Amino acid sequence: MRSLGHQRAVNAAVPAFGLRIISLVHQRSLAASLPVGLILVSMATTAYSQSCSQPLNPAFYEEQQFSVRKIQLQHPLDFVFFVRSSLNRLKGSLPLQEGQIFSKDKYDRGVSIIDKAFKNDDAFGISLVKVVVVTASIQNCQENGPKTIDVVYRVFSTDPVPSLKASPEKRAESVQEPATTSAELNTLPLYKVKPIFGYEDARRGYGGGELFLRMPGNTQEQFHLLATGSSTSKIVDVTFSGSRTTSKSFLNLLNYDLSYNYTQIPVSDVRSNKSILQARFNGFSKPRDTLSRRTLLRYAASIEAGNQQSDLSVSTDKTLNRSSYGAIRVYVGAATTTRYSEGTLSYGLQSGGAGLDHLTFTKHVGDLTYSRRFPGGTHAPWDVDTRVSFGHIHGNGIPFADKFFGGNSVNPFSPTDEWTIPSGPIVRSIPANRLNGNGLGGTSFYSVNLTLGKVVYFRPLIPAEVENANGFASGITAAENTAQQFFEDDYLVASQEFKDLVSHHAGVLKGDLDSLQLTFSEIKSNTPTNPKLDSFLRQTDRLLRSAQRIIGHATVPDAEGHTNPQGLVTLSNPNVSPLIKEGEQPGVLNMISQLPVGISPELTSKLQKQKASTLQHLEDLRIAKDEIKKTDAGKKARANAERDMTRPREVIDSLRHEVNSYSIGIVGLFDAARIWPDPFATRYAIGGAARFSIVTVNFTAGYAVNPTPHKDLGQGRGAFVFSLTYTNFFR
Amino acid sequence: MPTAKKKKKPKDSIQPTHVSVTFTIVTPNQLRKIVFTLVKLSDATNDSFSVMFELDERADASKPFQLVIQLQVDVDHNDVAKAAATQKNGLDSDQHAQALVAGDTAKDAQTGAATKQDAEDDAKAIVSARNPSSPQ
Question: Which residues pair with B71 in a beta bridge?
């Protein structure tokens, strides 16, 4: 579904390093800033620290009648509004409350309540493996004066974070509006109304609103209306859009929309209007995952018809100042991400003119982006971001607004698509659209943008005291290992080799157990009863039935069609097997070593033979179980499990060792760009900026100097640069 | 607060009284969910462990899971070392197999094919099943 279906500009300003340039949605700049305020407020913590003499002895604080000064629920994502909101609700439901006298029982019960709440919470979606770690501790004990303590519960959950999206733009959207995006993923409201305020150079201050309506009874389709205006501009966008998923790998997701779009935006000093009816589809392939890389292909096509006007005084064969309008666009691209890098490649082709029956020009645009962090896995990396764009138009009858205009933000090739391909040279020292050649826009361009950044000050998302808390790190490691082991087992159990193993050994052992049960029946029939024998036979019967159940579940499908072949191997495990378990409650075969008196020598001998035979078969099973792990099936299962866990491990590792709750960095930038025709050749930008980052979102502000100013063309000594970008911590 | 150039001395690590680690595994066919929680309680002198085992099932992957059984058992003092190794390194293959058996027994206990005691014993045995050659 398209959610950014309105006129936007590709932001040129400070695509900070390691950070992919995202399409800045200027209308959202204020909305995007609101979560920042919430985040900053949530960062304010009290500087209250007292040590506790007996932190591992809650009973002491109960006996001494300490009162609870504060209860804290800490979660790595608790700065996200709806996570914080959930934590607050959970805090209100705890048996122990602030101001009460401390109770060990209530404190203990809090752990299971929190654990249960998180393990049952599917607000972030359902994943096959989920790990929740909860710790509870007593801190900030004021043991002299008013006796107070703080109770701190810490939670770590491997729930997917909202940035785990397939396409760069979707990830960008999720960080621009982190709270609402996460919530909307699962709640799908029937309608949404949103005010819009913002500022950009060409439009000046603007305001308006946005309405989303979900089609009743259909979660895949929606209606969208956007309207904004300013003293210099008007934008109206009405869209009906929908999406479908398919099983085809080359077209895993299909988005389609029908829209009417009216824009009135000044280009340089020329007023330009465009009114278009458009039909479009976007296709996305199924992401292709390898151990180190995720790649996504995408393609789109649209057909547009309408009219365009400008107050350009002249109209030439080359440039039309007002006319009907028609265009057909086709664009293709690929996005690839690794843990520490991200790249995109896009190409667009447009055939346009004064109507669909009068296509007189062809436009080509290309765009390549690449970003990387050095060294990855650290809280203070260097990052580099590059972008190379180019374009060319040939033919005649080109509408004024379709020509190339450059500056620190440029129009995208497909204005109403969230997929952004620059349709003009990006040079951050020149205001938007002021690089316009002879005043009529260009027919060719290229631009190269380079940005370097370095984090110089940071606060890790998971504070050191939590990371170092006893049991926290090991709990997460244990969870990762468990998940990988479970996957490996599942792959192995699904192999034909394992099925053959179970089929063979289950049959053999079933015969052994049937024989043993018959012999015990003979003992019961032929031996005078006594309490010890009765107890012995009851116990052997219980254990043999347990073993038979395991064999049955391994081979015979239950009512739902489930079998549990893996359970068979527990029969050969001396720690738990009902047949060979050792210790105070031994397995059946070990019990045969100490038979009660009164059993005939013949039956005793028969039992001993059956025991030897069964032991041998269990040993065969144990060896087969160990050997199959060394076969190709075992190696393949291990490799598949490792592959499956690579990404979850990366996500968890990034959260622990790379992501900052906030950081401050410095940024350097360099651009070179040219447009044709233009007598002044290549333009440059050299500048610096400061970057403030909150988790994956980066706000950058600085200044870029123009070494070759042309004030008469509106190209001064430089320009301020602002940007909102995201860091791809999670490929 | 650390900086890139000058790292401050880390704060003292916190001594939690409770560490609860919950593993939730949904089987590949998405019809069965096993929840295994290992809780470590620490006091000034020693550590103790308890285990919560839960099995949920559904007939259709599009329907919500239904709770089949939930068991809470304390870990035998003989298994404290295995519990500590499990909390540190995760469940091994033998423990995974035992967890699946415990799930079957839990279902059998509902139909009468096994007793509640059988189900509790099998759940408790998840920790005991740890292979001696697995990381300790």
Answer: B53
Q: Say which CATH number the domain at A16 has.
A: 2.40.160.50
Note whether A567 contacts B104, CB cutoff 8 Å.
Answer: yes
Cα-Cα-Cα-Cα torsion B85, B89, B91, B92, nearest 10 degrees, comes to -90
To which H or E segment does residue B120 belong?
Answer: helix B116-128
Q: Where residue A66 sits, what CATH number does that domain have?
A: 3.10.20.310
Residues 67-86 of B with CB under 8 A from A: 78, 86
**Does residue A404 sit within a domain?**
yes
pTM: 0.67
Kindly report whether the peptide bond that precedes residue A160 is cis, defined as omega within 30 degrees of 0.
no
Q: Where is average pLDDT lowest: A21-30, A125-134, A297-306, A547-556?
A: A21-30
Same domain membership, residue A241 and residue A93: no
Pick the most confident of A71-85, A425-439, A473-487: A425-439
Single-letter amino acid code for the residue at A192: K
The alpha carbon of residue A341 and the mean position of all alpha carbons in its chain are separated, in whole angstroms, by 15
A466 lies in a domain? no
The residues in A 418-477 lying below 8 A from B, measured between CB atoms, are 454-460, 463-466, 468-472, 474-475, 477
Per-residue model confidence as pLDDT tens digits over A499-546: 999 999 999 999 999 999 999 999 998 888 888 899 999 999 999 999
Average pLDDT over residues A438-455: 93
Q: How many domains does chain A have?
A: 3
Domain encompassing residue A349:
10-34+162-461+661-727
Any chain A CB within 8 A of the CB of B93? Answer: yes
Tell me which DSSP letter residue A380 carries: S
Question: DSSP 3-state helix, strand, coil percentages of chain B (rounded to 5)?
Answer: 35, 30, 35
User: Which among B1, B7, B13, B17 is the top mutation candidate for probing chain A, defined by the most A β-carbons within 10 Å of its own β-carbon?
Assistant: B17
- Within a domain: B6: no
Residue range A237-275, pLDDT digits in tens = 999 998 888 888 888 889 999 999 998 888 777 888 889
**Domain boundary pick from A618, A644, A670:** A644
- Chain B residue numbers with beta carbons less than 8 Å from the beta carbon of A56 are 15, 17, 42-44
Is residue A467 situated within a structural domain?
no
Q: Which of A98, A125, A157 is the last residue of a domain?
A: A157
> pLDDT digit string (tens) for A234-244?
999 999 998 88
In this complex, do B130 and A575 lie within 8 Å of one another by their Cβ atoms? yes
A486 contact residues in B (CB cutoff 8 A): 25, 91, 96
Distance (Å) from the C-alpha of residue A154 to the closest C-alpha of chain B?
10
Rounded to the nearest angstrom, the minimum Cα separation between B45 and chain A is 9
What pLDDT does A730 receive? 63
Q: Report yes or no: A134 at the B interface, CB cutoff 8 Å.
A: yes
Q: Is B60 helix (H, G, I), strand (E, B) or coil?
A: coil
Residue with tokens 């698509």: A417
